[in-house]
């Protein structure tokens, strides 16, 4: 079965072709980071407009690279939830129209299902075994799921305020770093930032739930800056070495919160495999600590290739392939939904 996947839930316009027998035939992603960077965050209206410009050329490119015609497709899948409604609507409406015109089946995909199944896009020896623990860490999400089987997900916990990537991006803003802050903070730590220079609070380390919280950490950074005489609108930016240490310390607190909660969930559930995906999974320090914890605990940790951790349409095409093979079809009346629990599918 050959499936076209379309993704436009946030700030990446993506299209991909997945063959359930041969694997990925193409995966094209156009990031809007440069469009949103001047504003220090994603502007929903701008995101929708940029998707409108990109959706046709990106899909054309994906079909071209896969050397496949529209008529040769066995189905089309598009993200329908969750995300920015205006952004979602572009990819979803486009995919529905395309499916109607090409007379092929259509299925809507939950964005987080795409992320949780993204490790299946890699070589077979790196595939996880059900049931496994899935940690999604991106700019919009920070959640832990028990992945029981294809299409069967149980949410164990999520952030009660900011997502991990969102927290890193906000910290980057406070430190005067370029957008996205997560990438800049990773880089500064690699350039010698000291993760132990500041003792910042690790969010929700209580051992009675699987939730995360990062807003207290952000507040702690604001106060730390203030105490040292930085942070007001008119004040001088902190010196470079201080920014580096603050960035590294902030990142360390985020990484520790993620790892402690994930491993606590592994302990409590008895699951033996952990899949970490989403943009923050690209973080060097997170990967380092995960590798060490994996060696120590015997837990198998799987992090998909970075291009499949960040938003992409290959994961949507893959999930679409599974659902279409199982006989699922969606009506063209399927609407975009900004917030929707994965379990309700
Ligand atoms: O998954 P993604 O591309 O988009 C969504 O949010 O859905 O994730 C983007 C997030 C941003 O918050 C960005 O700062 C963060 O991932 N990020 C990183 C790194 N690369 C991207 N955070 C830490 N270290 C990185 N290397
Ligand atoms: Zn995502």
Describe the structure.
The protein is 42% helix and 19% strand. Helix 2 (44-66) packs parallel to helix 3 (85-102), helix 5 (164-174) packs across helix 6 (181-190) and helix 8 (240-269) packs parallel to helix 9 (284-297). The chain is globular. It is of the alpha/beta class and 345 residues long. The chain has helices at residues 33-36, 44-66, 85-102, 111-117, 164-174, 181-190, 215-227, 240-269, 284-297, 306-309, 314-325; strands at 2-7, 12-19, 23-31, 75-81, 106-110, 132-137, 142-149, 152-158, 273-277, 300-302. The protein has eleven helices and ten strands. The mean pLDDT is 96. It has two domains: 2-117 and 308-344, 2-Layer Sandwich (Nucleotidyltransferase, domain 5), CATH 3.30.420.40; 129-303, Nucleotidyltransferase, domain 5 (2-Layer Sandwich), CATH 3.30.420.40. The longest helix has 30 residues, at 240-269. The strands form two sheets. It has a five-stranded mixed beta sheet, sandwiched between helices. It has a five-stranded mixed beta sheet with strand order 8-7-6-9-10, sandwiched between helices. A hairpin with a 4-residue loop joins strand 1 and strand 2 (12-19). The structure holds 5'-O-[(R)-(carboxyoxy)(hydroxy)phosphoryl]adenosine and zinc ion. The site of 5'-O-[(R)-(carboxyoxy)(hydroxy)phosphoryl]adenosine has 19 residues, from helix 5 and helix 6.
